[in-house]
Amino acid sequence: MSQRLQTAVGIGLAALAVALLTLLFWLAFNHPARADEREMQDYASPLEVVLSLDGSRIYALCQQSEQVRVLGATNYAVIRNIAVGRVPRGLSLSADGARLFVTNSGDDTLSVIDARTLTVTATWPVSAEPSSVIEDRAGKHLFVANRISNDVAVLDAQTGVEEKRLVAGRGASYMTPSPDGSRLYVTHVYPNPLRVRSDRDNRTAPESEITVIDTARAVVVDRIPLHGIAGVFHVALSDDGRLGVAAEYHPKNMIPLAHLEHGGAFAYTLELFGADVDKPVEIPLDELERYASRPFGVAIAPDKSRIYVTIGGSEMVTVIDVARLLRFIHARPQAQPASFAQDLSASANYVVARISVGHDPRGLTLSRDGRKLFVANRLEDTLSVIDTHTNRVAATIKLDGPKEISPLRHGEQTFYTSRYSFQGQIGCASCHIDSTFDGLTWNLEPDGFGRNTVANKLLEGIRGTEPYKWTGTNPNIPTECGPRTEKYFWRAENYDDRTLTDLAMYIRSLEPRPNRWRLANGELTPAQERGKAIFERTVDKFKKPIPEYNRCSYCHSGPKGTNQKTSDVGTRRPNDNASLLKSAPLTNVALTAPYLHDGSAHAMEEIWTVYNPDDKHGRTNDLTKDELNDLVEYLRTR
Amino acid sequence: MKRLDKLAMLVAAGVLAFIAPTGSAAPPAPAAPKMPLFRFENFTTANGLPNDHVYAVLVDGDRIWAGTDDGLAVYENHSWKTYTTADGLAHRAVISLALDKRTGDVWAGTMGGLSRISGGRIDSYTQLNSGLSNNVVYGVSVEGENVWIATAAGACRLNLHTNQWSLYNERNTPMFEIWSYSVSATPTKVYYGIWGSGVLEYDQKTGKWDKYDDPDGETEMVLFKDQGLIHEIVTSVSYMEKDKVLWAATYFGDSHYDGRYWHNFLTKDSGLPSNFTNIVRGVDGKRAWFGTDKGLAYYDGVNWAVYRPSMKDGKPEMTVRDAAGTVTPVTVTTAPAHNYILYIDFQGDDIWVATAKGLSHGVRQK
Q: B166, A625: Cβ pair inside 8 Å?
């Protein structure tokens, strides 16, 4: 080796060593948390935002990067990014401001953050899909709303040990305390199960509630009924405790989903309750030519002069003058249940501003003096800062993350916006709440008025389960979501090719949520094992062979529980145009009531105890009640 | 002769005067044991109850729940409110009640399913829409996160966390008959009273079942009185976990079991007003209340008291029977609404009693 070569190699090795040392140094001092990795890879997707008690810090819960991002409230500079659990959904501050709580809906944990050191001090296991958390004033209990188990868990605030669970509405998700802390108001995103049976079970108006909890006794003391409502989101109380406000959807699923211009699919409303309105009253946010699609976050000004509502699908914040609103209501006394939902002229009496913000605005919070409103724009990675005196966006805080809009991100934006539909009335997410479903049955106009009532189905995990539609007549997602949707649902703007492709890509990307009925070790319980044997059996209890087409495991085969074929299972209704139905996937089937193509079966058991008299939906009438229970236990693991 | 007679009488009178204490005309009655005194206030359709046939009663703090033949009534702030099937109740006839003390939820067993009343909302479970084994729910008891249910077709358990139903019947327990009439659940043991199949015991720790039968079989004869359970037709069980004592009621007498020894009660050798017992509610390991077809009875471990409208004239009646078997009437002005007692619950020192013709509130008198 020549001298020059040796020198070159030496210089090269030295340079490499310096580079390695530099890298090690950087890793040691600048790469302490996996959060920073995520920051580079993932969009932030801010979902909720709260301020520190002294108003100096902004805490933004970023769902996709799985962080709490801490910013200065005046200069908006990043103070810290705190990694939390999987798919965080809820964020709150303790009454003394010392602790931040984050519910992680993807791994069923609760992160406890020291607000002084900005570090996670504890991660506690909680129940299924925790969606929000509130600590009581005494610091004794934490209340956690669980979306999948439909309850509010009561935890010891110091140890995280669960003491009990209180029954809430289906899809329990959001909470707010009364100003004195004595009550907790809880909403839920899916309609409650039917209470009173009738012969029109799949065509009954949805019912929801605001669950009222006595925080000192930790018991449910009241339920404010919400008639005709399916999907209730943030709820807020005025500082004097006299006015409660909840954002909600009022679906028009009891009538055929006709052309949007002839009646619409939803009224987007607020439910008002409390002493100011005496009895609960529903008021619309929509106006004649412009809908307020998917209201989500609610904040009430400290002086109760204004209500601010984020409108996710319409990408705006609606501002309501409370004095005018109360005058409007009191001038028009109504019989209970009081609702102005269908009056599109109503909102002109109290909506004073509609402020455009970013994609899919969600959580919002007011500064203590009410001068600034911070809004989390989930699909834009920004926070809008609104000057409440001028009702204008004073600043837009950009959160760190990818600068480019990826096709997947674009597809998600398309899914959540309502801009493509006539008057901005609906978007995919109006019926597929948080990309899931809505628990409702709909009569879609394309098949004819009154024909083919169908239950809305879960989207997650649908990749590879084509054909789509209840009859299996749509071969792929672009067909399902493209011209058909544009023509029959949106009645307005078409998707361009790229948008439709990106939307389909997003829908295909929706993975199933973790199944909460499977044991952690992957094994089945004895009851699940017995149920599996029933699911897979080839002979009945009388030793008679079950034809292949009538075995559970034939139609519901494969990892997603569908053979992707159609068959007649004897559930055709007089108003159905077809008997052949696509075998439905079983992905997270325990979550997706009502069942059957038209939502006739309100519980899995009813598929067999009520709607399978002739054994056409599998051979089941030889089963005892114990065995049917075992079958249900197994299906819950799918 | 007449003079002789007179003399004899005088002598006899002198002897008697010597023997008898001064001022007494007859031997004194032994003092009756002190037993609880009540002033009974009765509720019927006349004062707000939806139906006079009251099958079950439950004390929930200041609220009283009454399961009637025509809905579930709740008494609060001096007025009754009734929940019906229009509110989501599984069936109009409510025949058993239980309180989840942790959450405040009330569970109502009906002739058409099981209902949960929570914050005014009713969710109902039936054999068609859930894993419930049968719609006729004779008994319900809440323990921790489990609701234990006695039905006309076996026992079952609903786990409130997992929503899993577990069914117990002749295929997986030593249950000879499946007509389950009563359940008493505690963190350590769960007892079922089975109509025609004795008492079933479930050990929470081991998950195993055991069974207690009448050693005499199904006959109504009692060959050896304290040999075991008094009869196979068990209508009610009440387990006192702290004292590890089981009280069991049957249509042919009642039983007390301390884990080793049985002690049985029959009308012929106790203060029980009738062997036909619908319900037993233990106070502790020594004391219990019994609801029979001939009145309400209380046993304090030694003595008995019976409260009822008189079997002869319907007037309020209370009797006390001491350990020697001496029965002493106690003057009272009120009595339970009817002799046929179906359910009992306690409100501090007060007692609430469901009867065939109204609901009774026994206000304890000091």
A: no
Tens digit of each residue's pLDDT (9 = 90 or more) over A381-405: 999 999 999 999 999 999 999 989 9
For residue A259, the one-letter residue type is: H
pLDDT tens, residue by residue, A133-192: 999 999 999 999 999 999 999 999 999 999 999 999 999 999 999 999 999 999 999 999
Strand partners, B98: B107
Do the Cβ atoms of A626 and B87 come within 8 Å? no
Domains of chain A, with CATH numbers?
A: 425-508 (no CATH), 526-635 (1.10.760.10)
ipTM of the complex: 0.89
A227 CB neighbours in chain B (<8 A) are: none
pTM of the full structure: 0.90
Check CB contact under 8 Å for A223 and B166: no
Distance CA B357, CA A123 (A): 57
For chain A, the C-alpha Rg in angstroms (whole number) is 26
Kindly give the pairing relationship between strand A46-51 and strand A99-104: unpaired
Tell me the pLDDT tens digit for each residue of B122-136. 999 999 999 999 999
pLDDT averaged over chain A?
Answer: 91
Q: Which of B121, B124, B126 to mutate to test the interface with A (most CBs of A within 10 A)?
A: B121
| Most B-contacting residue of A161, A163, A164, A541 (CB-CB within 10 A), to test interface | A164
Q: Do B85 and A196 touch (CB under 8 A)?
A: yes
Listed residue (A638, A630, A620) closest to A525, CA to CA: A630
Domain positions in chain B = 39-79+288-366
Q: Is A245 left (phi over 0), alpha (psi -120 to 50) or beta?
A: beta
Span B326-330, mean pLDDT? 96
Cβ-Cβ contacts under 8 Å for A191 (sequence gap 6 or more): A170, A206, A207, A208, A229, A230, A231, A438, A439, A440
Mean pLDDT of B235-253: 97
Which residues 147-166 on chain B approach chain A with CB closer than 8 angstroms? 153, 160-162, 164-166
Cβ of A626 within 8 Å of Cβ of B105? The answer is no
Is the CB of A221 less than 8 angstroms away from the CB of B103?
no
Q: Where are any strands of DSSP class E within B153-230?
A: 154-159, 165-168, 180-185, 189-194, 198-203, 208-212
Contact in structure between A628 and A620 (CB atoms under 8 Å): yes
CA A262 to chain centre: 28
Nearest to A62 by CA among A41, A37, A90: A90
User: Out of A571-575, A613-617, B327-331, which region has the weakest mean confidence (pLDDT)?
Assistant: A571-575
* Nearest CB to A605 within list B118, B128, B145: B128
